[in-house]
What we know:
The chain is α+β, with helices and mostly antiparallel strands. It is 35% helix and 18% strand. The longest helix has 101 residues, at 404-504.
Amino acid sequence: MVLRELGIRGTDAVFFHSTKRDRVVFVDEVPPGLICPVCDDVFVAPRIAPCGHSLCATCVEKVNKQTGKCFSCSASANPEDFTEDNVSGVQLGDLRVFCRNALGLRQVDDDDGSEGGASASKHGSGGLELFIRLEGFDHTACSAAVRLRELDTHEVTCEFRSLMCDLCDEEGEDEESRPPGKSAAQGGTSALLGADGGGGVCGFTCMTRDMPRHRATCTMRVTNCPFATSGCRWRGSAGRLPAHRASCRKQPRRCPNGCGAYVGVGPMMMRHLDTCSMGEVACDAPDAEERPGDPDPLRCPAVVQRGRLAEHRREQCPWARASKCRQCHVLVSQRSTGEHTSARCASNREPCPNQCGTLVATRELQRHLNQDCDKAVVECPYGPLGCGARTERSKMPGHLTHATGQHLELTRRGLVDAQRRGDELRRVVDSHRREMAAGVEAQRSEAAATLAAKESSIMQGVRELCAHDAEVRAHAAGEVEVLTRAADDQASTLGGQALDMIGALQPPRTCAASSTRSRGTRTVRYRRCGLRWRQTKARRRCSSRR
Ligand SMILES: [Zn+2]
Ligand SMILES: [Zn+2]
Ligand SMILES: [Zn+2]
Ligand SMILES: [Zn+2]
Ligand SMILES: [Zn+2]
Ligand SMILES: [Zn+2]
Ligand SMILES: [Zn+2]
Ligand SMILES: [Zn+2]
């Protein structure tokens, strides 16, 4: 809490550092009357005692409260007796001080630590040293010396004030990829809050006067896509532009016609394609010759590159290339020279034989007489109804007007006649129809009779066949009866013979199983074959024969 002297090495300059204040250095020596006797520093909010001595407001609190006397003259004075020292206050405000942006603080290691630099100072306390950066030696130093009362005001606007760049990193979005309803401004806000990955603040610090230059090149400054003219709505931090640019959908594309131009997409590309020299266009050149008989003449259908259209028309186009006819001096397209000579050339035309005043090409003459010539004699269109008028084509409308009544009468008669003939025709048709119906009916009944006769004869045949069939069946049954009887006889004869042969055989020993005897007759039963034999003295007989 003491006013220190700051001397600059190598010069005689001495400045006064108020250690009680935050980095305040006075340019001139401070008058002794403005230095507080208690703290030995320039007054801070001076208060004056009734005896006329002043102290800082804090020093009054600190010293006078304990002693109850003036620090300078020992006159009795209570703290309540001190009043604001306006005179000293005004003088204080007039003292010139350095702008704080001319001052620096630096760490010092030892007594000789303050080396180099534009200025030097006596050491501060705690190893921290305040020094003055003089203009001309340090371009970041403010050279202003202002009144103490204006110090704060000056520092707000001082262009050497340190300022931090507060631009934010903005990711930037394409119009297409932005969710609906979310505007660019909202995107910026979320970037500020760091919600979408961006959001860092630049933080670069420099003097106020250098800030515009920094902001012009700051990587966080918001910039538009360079292809905005092609419709890209991207807006984001300059640092993110290279990444966007590489994937920007609106970046110029090579012209699809292969003209080599790179053109922005969208309307610019459309405009380019409308004028691209490699684009294909139809020649569409009209015929050089006027052709009154052909209201919509063909045009050249050739498709050529736009850049070569002039060349095509000059050197190839049979429509655009034209020359004057030697006979009639009319401009004629190359494609129709022959046609012109034969059909349209004036030198090839002759006056109409009806003297209608028209020049007609020879080959067109018949068509002219049939369709166009005003002097050609034509028949009235009511001729088929009985009008025998014949007059020049140009006069026919007049005849049609004058003879309306006559033509109506002819029409009426024609109608009546047509009706009569219609009735006649109907009668003929009716009689024909009746004849045909009768013929059809006769044919039908005849066919029915034939069918019935055929049916009855078939039925007769069937009955005869049935009778024959029964006869054959009866005959066959008789035959079968005779054969059956003969077979039975033969079978019984053969059976008797066979049994006799079997009886003569000795029954096999292995087969004998049991035998019973009664009244001289022995009956043997064979287990395997199931036969029973009854042996008597007179004769052996098989029991199965009984
Ligand atoms: Zn004081
Ligand atoms: Zn300043
Ligand atoms: Zn910045
Ligand atoms: Zn873009
Ligand atoms: Zn092109
Ligand atoms: Zn052409
Ligand atoms: Zn001609
Ligand atoms: Zn007529």
